[in-house]
Amino acid sequence: SPSAGLRQVPGMAETEAGGDGQGPTSCEEGLKLAAVIGATVPTGFELTAAAEVQEKLGSASRISRDRGKIYFEVPAGSLPQVHRLRSVDNLFVVVQDFKDYQFKASKEDALKDLEDLVKKLPWTSPLKVWELNNSLKKKKSRRKKPSVQPAASREKLQGEGEEEGSDPKGTNREEDSAENSASVEPASDQDTEETKAAEAQNGEEEQEEDPEQPDTKDELQEGSGSETKAGEGQPSEAGSKALKFRVTCNRAGDKHSFTSNEAARDFGGAVQEHFQWKADMTDFDVEVLLNIHNNEVVVGIALTEESLHRRNITHFGPTTLRSTLAYGMLRLCDPQPTDIIVDPMCGTGAIPIEGATEWPSCYHIAGDNNPQAVKRAANNICSLLKKQESKESSTTLGIPLDIIQWDICNLPLRTGCVDIIVSDMPFGKRIGSKKKNWDLYPACLMEMGRICVPGTGRAVLLTQDKKCFAKALSRMGHIWRKGQTVWVNVGGLHAAVYLLRRTWERAEERRSFW
């Protein structure tokens, strides 16, 4: 049966479905609400994200059949802790979800059902959570006002951000499209292109990417500037101002008679009619999400304006790994206090910076053979230190991280001195080449085996060149044993994260690889 996305905790009056709410809630009342939160996470790391939610929030998670999403219930007062999760990219409050939604065969009937669905959904409480979330964001921005990042820098950060193995333009959306649309199913018919914004009243159509939402797939924005009906869910900060919205539709499956554009257009038109809002796809107040994966339908309201993975990196390179994916890789190797963790091919430093931030009781060493990459990583570390210094009453003296330029095949580290190696290896696309990887990978694995502690050492390595890696690993079987493999989607590329465990055998200094 469909489950409401937000309900009140025991002892409180049930919220009426259909949206006949009583307007804005008081802060105290809002904190008592229990919300079902949806989160997009790096594909393949759903279990890792669920473990983090359980550990930090004490909530069990449901992993969606649509890869790259998890759902969990928390009190609305826990929203600040939810935003501090390290493994999630985007957050939304669930209005309602349908595990087995039966779509009509004809396009017209199916779209009409989606339109009719709008009036039946319990909008009031999710909008209260959205309002509470907005008030928390405003408090945060007021606290940070003295050290707020200049607009030009912010635009540069958003414009330069590139994901591993993806194109510079629209990379975040491309990667999350692949993840959240379950692109691992080649037979599925999915809408992954940016949809057009349609304004139901005047028929105008316009296509534009919203810089504040870098990782949406199918976007049809509906929205308008009137007040809500009967005071339903009208956010207090909007007051008499026009409330604007857009609808973003994400669809995956090969048995739908409609496209994501059509679903978002008609669903958005019904939302517009129900709330008397108007369309604005860039300067919107509310983003309504319509996620359709085969017969699973989830309606939600976005709680994040930009992906939470944009937290550490200010200087980007051609292949900058997302911080959320870096966190998942680090968590996979289970760092313990006093562990020495090395990233021998650090690029812009996403992995070691995430590691030093989340595991400060470990010591982190990063290096790269490219002097420009080392410079970018050093700049990112400096940016992080400045951010820490700007925090009120901060007593942080630094972070346990050093960076150096070195040769991956001849590391200036003693034999058997490293506990953990975590690295994003060259895919052979934007950096290096597939041909060079055939020599590079076995040499890397041999040198990593030399510096890693025999018996207890482990390595977590990400690569898209799986054939070459498998061949190299088969030649290095005497020093590395493959443990776990996590299949991930990186910028639309099907990649793998390998957990390797160091054997007790001594690694040779030189060896004929092939």
Automatic annotation (TrEMBL):
It is found in: Cytoplasm. Residues 1-26, 136-241 are annotated as: Disordered. InterPro entries: RlmKL-like_Mtase (IPR000241), RlmKL-like_Mtase_CS (IPR053943), SAM-dependent_MTases_sf (IPR029063), THUMP_dom (IPR004114). Residues 202-213 have a biased composition (Acidic residues). It holds the Pfam family THUMP. Residues 136-146 have a biased composition (Basic residues). CDD domains: THUMP_AdoMetMT. It comes from the Eukaryota. Residues 189-303 form the THUMP domain. Keywords: Cytoplasm, Methyltransferase, RNA-binding, Transferase, tRNA processing. The keyword Zinc does not apply. Residues 166-175 have a biased composition (Basic and acidic residues). One of its GO terms (molecular function) is RNA binding. GO terms for cellular component: cytoplasm; tRNA methyltransferase complex. Its main location: cytoplasm. GO terms for biological process: tRNA methylation. Belongs to the methyltransferase superfamily. This is THUM3 protein. The gene is Thumpd3.
